């Protein structure tokens, strides 16, 4: 998550420095979630068959190789290759989520999955500031130090996994099929009541989030006049709020209002944040832009752990890795769509990515209403 936090804030700006047009920025960014789409269910199924530990280690190794390639980027084609490999390696989030479901009870699952979100927030506290610094000391026109440092982090991660991470599956599924039919898997899960609504809500949220995320860096630099270091500080603020929300508030919210009501609350937080962000302007950036970002972080804290936990509760226990892999894969389609459309919309008017995201989130209110009328999980 720290490596992700280092790369993401500087990626749109660096892509533009390499000569990309606004629409090309989105297309370059799309390759990452497209690889997630194909590999997330495969990693999930392989983890059901061979165990979570070896799949986590293999995927972390691939991510490290991707960062080494990133260190050599001097053209859009090399950047494309780096993001392709990174998308393959980082498709392991579903395996990490499945690991957590292996070692937690249903009652504590949402809280523990919230801690995974808090780890994401910590990465965003340290990552953007560190990324801005590493970019500034890299060779002009390159990001070599960014790549070398993140590759070193992956090596440290691999070492920690080897020595400290025990296997979480007591009985591996030797009969688990190799899931290469990604589209078939998504269609199959979309036919299941409750899981279908959760997958669609997750899809809309991720697409809206990516519309916002890819456009924010460009808007803050080109419209609000922030420099690379200041943009890093803004992303660090998002990370701080995410840590507070997912590390401290999610568990309390689940006990207070339950996972289903958290879905509705998260949607309204997201709509409010998206509407605020492009309207603030440079003079009112503090505190109102930060307020909008805090609302987005609150939305993420309410939606992501709740959706993941509910999906795991509705799934057959022996297929949790596979279903969460499908969820991540379907979410990757949303990331690709959000990223691809974001650059195009931003090129028309910088307000559009945010407003389109808010409209999409409004649609998900209908899905939550359907989901609330369905039976509760049996576990």
Rg result: 20 Å
Number of helices: 13
The overall pLDDT, averaged over residues, is: 86
Q: Kindly give the count of domains.
A: 1
CATH topology: Growth Hormone, Chain: A
Spans of 5+ residues with little confidence (pLDDT < 50)?
A: none
What's the N-to-C terminus distance? 30 Å
Q: Give the strand content.
A: under 5%
Shape: globular
What does this structure look like?
The chain is globular, with a radius of gyration of 20 Å. The protein is mainly alpha-helical. The longest helix is centred in the middle third of the chain and has 49 residues, at 228-276. The protein has helices spanning 2-17, 22-50, 52-71, 76-89, 93-102, 109-137, 144-164, 182-190, 195-222, 228-276, 285-314, 320-348, 352-372. The protein has a single domain, classed as Growth Hormone, Chain: A. It is built from 13 helices and no strands.
Write the layout of secondary structure elements.
Blueprint: H1 2-17, H2 22-50, H3 52-71, H4 76-89, H5 93-102, H6 109-137, H7 144-164, H8 182-190, H9 195-222, H10 228-276, H11 285-314, H12 320-348, H13 352-372
């Amino acid at each position: 998550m720290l490596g992700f936090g280092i790369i993401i804030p500087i990626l749109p700006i660096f892509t533009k420095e390499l000569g990309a047009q606004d629409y090309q920025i989105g297309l370059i960014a799309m390759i990452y979630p497209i690889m997630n789409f194909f590999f997330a269910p495969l990693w999930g199924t392989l983890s059901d068959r061979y165990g979570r530990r070896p799949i986590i280690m293999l995927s972390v190794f691939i991510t490290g190789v991707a960062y080494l390639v990133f260190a050599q980027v001097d053209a859009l084609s090399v950047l494309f290759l780096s993001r392709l490999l990174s998308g393959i390696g980082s498709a392991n989030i579903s395996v990490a989520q499945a690991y957590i479901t292996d070692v937690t009870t249903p009652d504590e699952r949402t809280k523990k999955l919230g801690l995974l979100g808090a780890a994401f927030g910590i990465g965003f506290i340290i990552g953007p500031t560190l990324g801005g610094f590493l970019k500034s000391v890299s060779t002009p026109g390159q990001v070599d130090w960014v790549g070398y440092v993140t590759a070193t982090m992956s090596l440290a991660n691999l070492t920690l996994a080897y020595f400290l991470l025990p296997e979480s599956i007591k009985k591996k599924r030797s009969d688990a099929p190799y899931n290469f039919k990604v589209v078939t898997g998504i269609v199959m899960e979309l036919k299941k009541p409750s899981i279908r609504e959760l997958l669609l809500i997750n899809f809309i949220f991720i697409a809206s989030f990516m519309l916002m995320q890819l456009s924010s860096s460009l808007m803050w630099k080109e419209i609000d006049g922030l420099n690379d270091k200041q943009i890093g500080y803004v992303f660090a603020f998002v990370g701080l709020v995410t840590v507070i929300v997912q590390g401290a508030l999610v568990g309390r919210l689940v006990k207070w209002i339950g996972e289903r009501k958290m879905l509705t609350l998260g949607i309204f937080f997201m709509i409010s944040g998206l509407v605020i962000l492009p309207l603030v302007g440079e003079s009112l950036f503090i505190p109102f832009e930060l307020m909008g970002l805090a609302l987005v972080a609150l939305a993420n804290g309410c939606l992501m752990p709740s959706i993941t936990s509910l999906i795991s509760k509705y799934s057959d226990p022996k297929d949790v890795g596979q279903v969460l892999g499908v969820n991540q894969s379907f979410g990757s389609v949303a990331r690709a769509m959000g990223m691809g459309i974001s650059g195009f919309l931003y090129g028309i008017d910088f307000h559009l990515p945010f407003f389109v995201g808010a409209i999409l989130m409004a649609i998900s209110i209908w899905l939550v209403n359907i989901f609330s009328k369905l039976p509760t999980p049996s576990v």
